Records
---
Amino acid sequence: MESLAAKVVERLNRAESAAELRFCHDELARELRRCLAPEQMKQLAGDVVCVHEAILRRAFFLAERETMKRSVGIRPPAWCWYVMGSIGRREPTIWTDQDHGILFDCPEEEEAACYEFIRHMAAVGVDMLHEAGYPYCSGYVMATNKRWAQSVRGWEQQLSSYLDSGWPNDIRFLLIAMDMRPLYGETELAEEGRRMLFSAVAKRPPLLARMGEHVQFPPVPLGWLGNVQTERWGPHSGAVHMKQSGYVQLTNALKWLACFARVPAADTAERRRALEAAGVLTAPLSAAVCEALSVYYSIRLKYSTEAGDGREYVLWRTLERTEQKQLKQAMRTAKRLQRFVARRVANIHA
């Protein structure tokens, strides 16, 4: 397993079609089903991120080449394809949907023609990734959505409108955008876009407080007596949704705290380390959060090796006793971190 990422990436660098990208994606899944073991989890996590990034970079390269070949619009002097969501935070499982966007910079008089280039390239890339095993984002957080394919000028104007309104959907947009991480192209465009966002939110205490309130939902499904509240009805009765049972709450809380502390990091691990270094998180709380994230990731990776809907649901009774105990503790940590954020929000309101 040690050489899996290197082996797959080498093949990816020669891929010329979505079918070849899909083969590599499937190979990752096959190898992980064979090699999953707790002691290998850190190595596996790194391999999963590495292979996903290589697939996306190759798809973006092929989309760019196809667009240039067709002479669509004008290629911007500088542009960057960035990722968000679990890949942006460097914590994807094997099967993940698309979360990405494009920022470009060009003379104002060429913006319309440059956008034609970007729009065509985005359409090619999105369809290629879909064929390679990355479902379209149900929330349309993809570069084919103009909201996520902007010139730097357009991005700044759009950001300003969302910062000033504070509507729930706008807060959702801001939280999603905080994960933006450059993957292909002029990396500084996305890095500066994220830094600008973190700085702008941190300068607006009322907005920061509203975003902190947003982090309190959904509630962690753990009762007062330590009972895990599984799904009661429907096809997933008796199951736990692994993303909504504490994982999302942890990542969103760390994201908010990073903004609160003006630490514009993109991935969850970097945020946690920076928050501990800055004294925002105590060493014991940081260690507990690190362990909780590891538990969620390990279980999600172990039980989601098959593609398809519902892979985030895990039947509680199928978990090993040790996993049940670890997951309960991870849920307690998620609730603890939510309360930690709530206290910071209360201080802002005071």
Note: The chain is about 60% helix and 5% strand.
---
Amino acid sequence: MIKKLTYFLLGCLGFASCAIENDIPYPLRVASISSIEVEGQRAAEGATDATAVIDKAAGTVTLYVNDSVDITRLKITRLVLDPREATIGIDSAVCDNYGKFPTNDFASLDSLPLSANTRVDFSEPVTMTLSTYQDYPWKVTVNQIIQRDVDVYGMVNHVLDVNSRNVIIYVNPKEVPDLSNVQIKKLNLGGEYGKVTPDPTTVHDFTKSQTFYAARHGEDTWQEWKVFVYQTEEGGSTGSSDVFAMVTRATVKGSVQSGKTPTVEYRKQGSSDWNTVPAANVTTSGTSFTATLTGLSGSTTYNYRVTIDGVAGSEQSFTTVAPVALENGSMENWSQDGKIWYPNAAGANPFWGTGNPGAANFIGNLTTATDESVKGKAALLETKDAIIKLGAGNIFTGDFELEGLNGLLHFGRSFSSFPTSLRLYYKYTPATIDMIGDNVGDLASLKGQTDMCQIYIALSDKIYEIHNDPKNRQLFDPNDSGIIAYGEFTSSQSVTSYKQLEIPLEYRATNRTPKYIIIVASSSKYGDYYIGGVGSKLWLDEMELVYE
């Protein structure tokens, strides 16, 4: 009886142990795509930057490709994840060979086995599931641009209808008096990499419509196109143009007869003297032209006109944008609340932020005012040991708050002007990198190397939210589509006396007005990963925006 009771109790204990739940959660590690490239990649129409547009908040990627590739079997040439050890899941139906598609990221095809197959059908958006301890779906959209160019001598304008496959070309009768002798320069109806028959440059008689057959690159299906040429009494220009004014420059875009190069002139309103835009600053493509006016003054109204074949168009006007000075760029104004120092005047709307609110009560301020300056006061950014992690000295346009033991930052302050560079004075004494944060992947190899400072400036359409929690890291991406202009400086060189530095801004769009300015400086470049050398110091003084 006792033996039976013992077996019964053991059985109950065994059952109870099976019912115990493991309540210890897996760590939260957000996975994202940090870089992706495909064959045939190009910029969107009207843009110059071919880099993929990655929205980490939405989990989306948008790319553009030319017509030299088959979008149904598009080869991915680079796919880098954050963290690097995350795995890739993809629908087998969209893979050229699902069994050969890599499950880990790759910086280039050279890092994959020769048997690997990264071709994917991107005719529709593709979902990739990135996995750490959790799954994160990402949608990748590839847009193929079929670039069909029409360029005919004497052309004033044209209409190309892809649906009906009709092309209507208008020419200037003074330049093309005889429609039986039309000179076609370019008519790539099959796309930039496609083919057309007969050769359009050998067809001249357009007293009636002509028929051409075009096929896309890599395809044997020929489509019929009809091309019509008509004379129009419109002059060499449509008489219309658009202008986008910055502070010291403006871009004029308009229409021009094919084969003609316009002369663009401008002057300050009220002046009698015209300035001619240098020929090097005027470009033409088919029936369009772009002229860049430089050396302008801010907050000034200008008149301009476009002249073709000695005939001047009507005068039009624009007003340049006012230059805006950088608030407290001299680093003279500081205030204190308890133990925390702020690089802003007391009672003023804060413009600059630092990580001081998260560090002052534990290890002291990371960024402070110093009399060791070019003039008056300067900012001293110092990397410190925060016991359980590293604290990098930093300053940025935005605000800081604590998110647990980590930082939640917002980059960006209201701004709507067009500087050409950021000028400042700096000193830097780097230490050896002796602290490495968690979940940093390949960056762990930086230990023992010389620390680096970093300063960057960006003009953007939006404010950026930054999380430096290793389990939920979301950092600033300079390639984000919201960035209008960007420039950066990184150095591990020791500079013991103040040195002037100018960081030029590279504008990626010349037709968008910024809404925010982002300036970030750190005594340890990888401070967001809690990587750096304790004792690294960066001094900043006399920061100003340059308009040239």
Note: Residues 1-24 have pLDDT under 50 and may be disordered.
---
Amino acid sequence: MTFDDELKHAFEALTARLQTELERQIDAAKAELAAVPPPPPPPPPPKEEEPAPSASGAEADERLVEGIRSIDNARSLSEILDALASAAARDASRVAVLLTSGGEWRAWRTSGFDQEPDVATLAAVAADASHDSRGRVRLPLAISGETVGALYAEDGRLTALEILVRHAARCLESMTAFKTARALARQDQHPGDETGSDEEVSARRYARLLVSEIKLYHEAEVVAGRRERDLMSRLGGEITRARVLYDQRVPSHVRRRADYFHDEVVRTLAEGDASLVETRKYEVESTK
């Protein structure tokens, strides 16, 4: 099997993984919709006119609707999380949107705290659909059944908070599925990949696929790493593993001519800011 055949095989395998992820998310959404029972028949009309809701109740409902609208209007995963934090803060005295990766929790956004809260303490609150004795609640934020974060809140309306979290999770899930579909549709739409020798074209495409997969499955860490300028400390392990795969597939004479993998890391993960990855801690000794 030639080198180009090996790269083509690896490319097809990774493409299949993206396709499988898209199908899994779509099937999960269909199953969830199918499981929703039909609405009950409307109750008989009341004998007497029901009183109008109180001003405070109407205002609370309007806050909830406005929060859902803001989540719907978000155009990225990070904007969805920000909208969730802002909407929850209007309904609770203290709020924190937490993210988890590799068993570790970090705060995405907090509100109402006098000082920076201890994330471990917030994450230790039992994940339950009810307040604890101190009025605290932690509601899991899941995408396709996998917990990616949580909403911590104090003294808030539980029903409203749960609605916001569930809606944000569905929006995150939908956007992830859309990104997967878009990545599949655009895999052959990079004209720069078609210039140079066959080996160089294959190397560029393989680098792009490896790095795009990191971004697809670690979107929140990528965004946070750009913002906090600690991209390598957050994703160094994932980038290193992808680099190993790249070095194993791409011949050394191609790697000596150009570092397509590093170029793709800078372009896709660092958005062109080479200073975020200038140390290149992910590099490993290439096999000669």
Note: The chain is about 55% helix and 10% strand.
